[in-house]
Every structure is written in structure tokens, then in C-alpha cells.
Amino acid sequence: MNIYLIGFMGVGKSTVAKMLSDKLDFELIDTDIEIEKRENRSINEIFSQNGEEYFREKEKELIEELSKKDNMIISCGGGIIKSDVNIANMKKSGSVVLLEASPEIIYNRVKDDNNRPLLVSNPGIEGIKKLMKEREESYNKAFTHKVDASKTPVQVVNDIITATLTLGDEFGNIN
């Protein structure tokens, strides 16, 4: 079984994934970092040189590959749920946990991060609200569990373990 963490940029997927991976002793993959390694360039470079469609294809290939493995924590890029194929592959191989936070919390977390190409064309809280609204239907279609990511990372990890009941019984919460 895998645990896929989905949600908008800035909800804490990377931080929570690392903690969850350590707690459960599962392999950790961050899809954005993995694609950057495989492409030997940044996401910003991929977007500017090849476009979003190319990047989304690389995401789809990676999710298909990862869905054939077990005992992984997979921190997914914010737009990975734009593909029904990705959603199907994630659901067939594990739990898909949607981390949610308000646009204001997200803005405060990402406002100084220059590695967010979609925020360039959709700046500020209003841009975040617009992008979140565009993805809302896909997020709702994708998740098997939903967790409030406005809490501390430790609380979020504990909520994920509790939400994915089979793991909660085996691993318990962290302090």
C-alpha cells in the first residue's frame, strides 16, 4: 500500500511526507523533485522550455511507475490530479490523502517562494483562490481521505495515520 499526498501548493505535502516516511519506514518520493532529477533541470525550466503539457506527461509516467510499487509515501505536485489516469493509478495502489488549507494560509507559506511557476501568472490570494477553484472538482474526485493541513505537521501526520485506519492500528500516533 502507498500513501499519496495531494493538495494545493503550500499545504505542507513535502514536510508531512518526510515525517510520515520516517514514522512508517516507507520510501519517500516527491514527484516534483523526482522529475527534476530525471530531467536534470528545474520545474521552472521545464515549464518555460517545454510547457505545462510536457511536465504533466512526465508526472503521468512517474505515477504509473510508482503505482506498481508498495510501501511508499508519495508527495504529489499540486496539479497531478488534473489527469484522470493519475487518479486511477493512485487509487488502485493506495490511499490518496488530500491536505487542505485556506488560501490565506497557503499564501503566507508560499509568498516568498520563487519556484512556483503557476503563481507568476496567478499572483496573490486571489490567484490562489482561482487556481484552487479550478482544481476543486479534481481534488474531490481524487481523494480517499481528507486532512486539515492548517495544523502543525505532527498533528497532520497523526491525522493521516488515523484516517488511513489500517495503518493507524499498526503504527499509532507520533508525539
Can you walk through the features of this model?
- With 175 residues, the protein is an alpha/beta fold.
- The chain is 59% helix and 14% strand.
- It has ten helices and five strands.
- The chain has helices at residues 13-24, 31-39, 43-50, 52-66, 84-92, 103-110, 117-121, 124-142, 153-163, 165-171; strands spanning 2-6, 27-30, 72-75, 94-100, 145-148.
- It has a five-stranded parallel sheet with strand order 2-3-1-4-5, sandwiched between helices.
- Helix 3 (43-50) crosses helix 4, helix 6 packs across helix 8 (124-142) and helix 9 packs across helix 10.
- The longest helix has 19 residues, at 124-142.
- The model is unreliable at 167-175 (pLDDT under 50).
Key terms for this structure?
175 residues, alpha/beta, five-stranded parallel β-sheet, 10 helices
